[in-house]
Predict the structure.
Amino acid sequence: MSNRTELDKLGEFGLIDHITKDFKNTQESTVYGIGDDCAVIDAGDKYTLITTDMLVEGVHFNLMYAPLKHLGYKAVVVNLSDIYAMNGDANQITVSIAMSNRFSVEAIDELYSGIRTACELYNVDLIGGDTTSSQSGLVISITAIGEVKKDEIVYRKGAKENDLIVVSGNLGAAYMGLQVLEREKEVYKENPEMQPEMEGVDYVLERQLKPEARKDIIHFLKDMSILPSSMIDVSDGLASELIHLSKASGLGMTIYDEKLPIDQETFNVARDFNLTPATCALNGGEDYELLFTMSQDYFEKLKGNQHFAIIGHVTDENCTVNIVEKNGTIQELKAQGFTHFNEGEN
Amino acid sequence: MSNRTELDKLGEFGLIDHITKDFKNTQESTVYGIGDDCAVIDAGDKYTLITTDMLVEGVHFNLMYAPLKHLGYKAVVVNLSDIYAMNGDANQITVSIAMSNRFSVEAIDELYSGIRTACELYNVDLIGGDTTSSQSGLVISITAIGEVKKDEIVYRKGAKENDLIVVSGNLGAAYMGLQVLEREKEVYKENPEMQPEMEGVDYVLERQLKPEARKDIIHFLKDMSILPSSMIDVSDGLASELIHLSKASGLGMTIYDEKLPIDQETFNVARDFNLTPATCALNGGEDYELLFTMSQDYFEKLKGNQHFAIIGHVTDENCTVNIVEKNGTIQELKAQGFTHFNEGEN
């Protein structure tokens, strides 16, 4: 071939756009393909939801500090999170793994014990997969299958002007957990005798190593008869996800710095690292909280509920996402989600 | 951990049994989990079929002789084949890839052009996936989604005593194609100036590099109102697949050496390599033909049809699969399917 374009030139989202631009959907049962948290298939009186994620050793996880059991758990959870982000129920998963002979049967047992724990907790069945060898490292590819009533599905598109912007739980903790683990890894490399400094960081470590998908939030919303107008899960960071919702819905969004839900421990750890807590909440990623918009009519139902933070509202400004700082200045948010394509080959 | 058991001690099927033994299906919608060509999910008036495969560079394919376009095509086809093996229609796929920065955008375009060609030919939509970097090489994980009417699904189990054993197309060609490619790779390594010897091997090369899934066979059978009693696709080799059908159905099988469908070119190439053509047909793998059992009542419908070979019958001998040699001697067949776990880590 005469031309060579490097992968990192396009970035992950650019590459996906580039790859998929020539594909056309022709099947009647394909309701929605690429571009949301899940693909949507017509299954008669319901929709089937399909989502898939691939985790690669050295890119998405580091076995030096991620125990295999937690890794298995997390690999399932991140997929289920995508099903819940469509307001659906997850029912099944398939798990494919490629692993080198560096891994023993006992190591694989650890991985699958985490997968099984997640299956039991979230009530999903392991129904298939593939196991193969690799020439280096571990690759995990999981597909989750779910369902949703046709009149209850929530897409990234659908936000309406003046809708409230709501996020579940709190943000930035998983990112701070990652910072702690990276710091301890460096300390360990320099002096393996040194005891790790893990006091006061339990919560942020758990959010990084063993995150939960917010199935409970979907049920809270159903119980309160709240149907979001648009929704996404926070995997790449709040800023990136707000931009997704905004683009998909063709509207602008304004959020308020002072409304961002940040746990006290996250706040403290961020300060220890000389990081601005709000920046960690906006760009950290891996929170797996649910970000959604909803009609102002639901305001009274959610007001004061500890599981939710109302962080802003939908505007008529075409696809611009702004944050109002505590001092009143307005800044436009740009996504800083993860890009992996600058990794080197060994 | 105190114990260390090597992965290759269990083999691929042993490892799958080991991994899955502690998983229990609890979802009402899970009709069939691990152990057939697809998982089966209840979708109201139909079944949804799900299958997934992972292909790893250096294990399943070698980019030295597999063009990326063909690789993309083949990666889709092997998954669709599993849907057809349940007598279903394939409608959608998801494609996840991990690739190192050794790959350019142009290389990925080649891969996806093969994927697109397969999607167009087999009428399936690409509805999702994941793209990420890897630290070495290319990994492709594809999930196919299909559907089948509830009264038309065909499992590996279900063969009845005295049923006929039928296989579509012919066997052993893909394996001979692989032998030719391996030979030319060695020749090239020794002398890059040497022209490859590719005369008279077009068919076996195509069967290896660009196999087809037998969607047409499913339609032939429907047109003739033939419903197989059990079915599987031939991916690991005829012997291995017969043993799967036999075990799942709890019955024995007898096939006849002289009935094995072997193409003339396959026969010639096998002879060139000093291999017994029947052995290649039995153990070669990657044929992606359909192997099924059916009632003798259908015999007249299939008799003389060039797309099918009746190679034997189901017996009452508990799970024993025998082959009757041309000289009349009877041998028990043992599976020699692929095992990948003896591969080394770089």
Remarks:
- The longest helix of chain B spans residues 105-122.
